[in-house]
Amino acid sequence: HVLLRAMIYVVYLxxxxxxxxxxxxxxxxxxxxxxxxxxxxxxxxRVGLSLVLIVVLVSAYLLGWIEPPAR
Length: 71
Fold this sequence. Notes:
Layout: H1 2-29, H2 36-62
Helix pairs in contact: 1-2
């Protein structure tokens, strides 16, 4: 169960980082602070984190660390 607990922490950490990146992009999109380079950097970072999250989840499923919920 230690591996599952670590996987949960990694997923929550990645999700939190994605939300922070989303908020950063929104900050740079609004009003006087509009800066397309910083907004693009936040978008790239968010897409990269999302890809890492997908790879982690698919890898964990294929390795048998997580299972889909029972029906």
